[in-house]
Specification:
The chain is α+β, with helices and mostly antiparallel strands. Helix content is about 60%, strand content about 10%. It starts with a helix and ends with a helix.
């Protein structure tokens, strides 16, 4: 468990950098990445358009802010970029874990792979709860022009079905990771 928690800041940073890359590539405006749940922390500035602020490390959150209005295509790319980075990084870490010899490095890589794949998949679930809106809900809105279902009000069973499918995928990933970890030992 501790090994998995060590990956969280890196996975959150990678995820938010994916969002920022779309802003920097498709607009002329700045991008600000906040990593953590606090309000203040060390800042890294890259030119006039990009800054990262670390606001705490015992967290599981991040945000990417931008000023310019986005087209629907840009909004879709922005929403999907973070989860895509997590999924790609998870696949790369999984490949490295499978190629690594038995031992600590394999367990560390496997923990990062599972965490990154989980983050990518969970962020794709199109859910809203209060002011918290998942990347999947942003992508849903950009693709369809309609808001994703809110989970704060009663939902018909069919609207929550995608959430339960993703939940089963995550549980399956955990089981596979546990089996691989057991086989390594």
């Amino acid at each position: 468990m501790l090994v998995a928690q060590l990956w969280v800041p890196l996975l959150v940073l990678a995820h938010e950098l994916g969002h920022a890359a779309v802003i920097l590539a498709s607009t002329r405006g700045p991008a600000l990445v906040l990593v953590g749940t606090g309000r203040r922390g060390p800042k890294l500035r890259f030119g006039r358009r990009f800054m990262i602020v670390f606001t705490g490390l015992g967290f599981s959150g991040g945000r990417c802010y931008h000023r310019e209005a986005l087209t629907r295509r840009q909004a879709l790319a922005f929403a999907l970029a973070g989860p895509a980075v997590n999924l790609g990084l998870g696949a790369a870490l999984l490949a490295d874990a499978l190629a690594a010899g038995a031992g600590t490095s394999r367990v560390v890589l496997l923990a990062g792979a599972v965490g990154s794949l989980e983050a990518g998949l969970l962020n794709l679930v199109p859910l809203r709860h209060g002011t918290a809106i998942s990347d999947g809900a942003h992508a849903y809105r950009a693709a369809t022009g309609r808001d994703a279902p809110a989970v704060s009000r009663p939902q018909p069973e069919r609207e929550l079905r995608p959430f339960f499918v993703f939940l089963l995928v995550i549980v399956g990933l955990r089981l596979v990771a546990s089996a691989v970890a057991a086989a390594i030992r």
